[in-house]
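User: Please predict the structure of the protein below. I'd like the answer in structure-token form so I can feed it into my own downstream comparison script.

Assistant: Understood. Taking the following sequence of 297 residues as input:
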Amino acid sequence: MRACLLLFAVLSLAACDSGFSGNPRDNQPPDTQLSVRDTSLTDNLAEEDRLTSTVRITWSGDDPDGYVVGYEIRYAPDGESINTIPWERTTTRDTLLLLPIPSGGKVADVQFEVRAVDQLGAVDPTPASAVFPIQNSPPSIRLSTFDLPPDTTVGVFTFAWIPDDPEGPANIAAIDVSFNDTLNFTRVPADVDFATFILETSDDPSDTVGTARMFNGRSLQPTDFYFDNIRLNADNTIYLRAVDKTDTTSARIEYTWWVKPVTGTILYVNDYRKSTNDVVSAFHLDLLKDYLPEDTK
């Protein structure tokens, strides 16, 4: 029995005395995979089957000796080296990207790269990559039916429009606006979607053409846009079209109504839209007559 205990003690001491040997292994970089396994879709898609420029891309990553904490992505348009593009950090595993098409162009082959990053900051030395063949789709625009002027206006008229683009609203670059002219447009910013046009007063009652200044939004923010071919006592047509970032324009839309010139210093606007409209209008006009100076009635 004593011999067995002695043997056990020797073995225990030997076990405590042993340790790990060798050098620790260097951190291994992660690996990245794209859901698109083809490095270039241009070989498998016909020209008419190109993708729209808004593309959803997904990816994943794994690490042999740790875990992935994020990803870095970048993409380059035609003719630009992707190695000159800085990486963008993200923790998601997918994104909806508006891939670039050169201004005025219709198609592009855009290279996309993604690389995983592990918990020690190591990045995949061989990023996952694919080339996406994309094509531009023209934008569209429509008038808001709730904000159209009536068939006749005096001095002031308001329009609201709704642009759209298959590549997403971020691809809308501007809105072209014109009155009574289908060839020459004034380009206003894309964020203008509600505009009021106010005719400037004239001292000559024989004028047949007037100038209107554009005010932006429902708060009537003044702008530097003027339209000098508004027909007075005549039909007028507004023309609108949306413009995307490739300078592609939508189909033109239009609306026609009658414009009366401003003939006095007081403008009465009847915005009461119920069946008793005429009664309410007559009441307020009588009030105006009682309080206005004689030369303004």
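That's the full token string. Helices lie at 2-17, 277-291.
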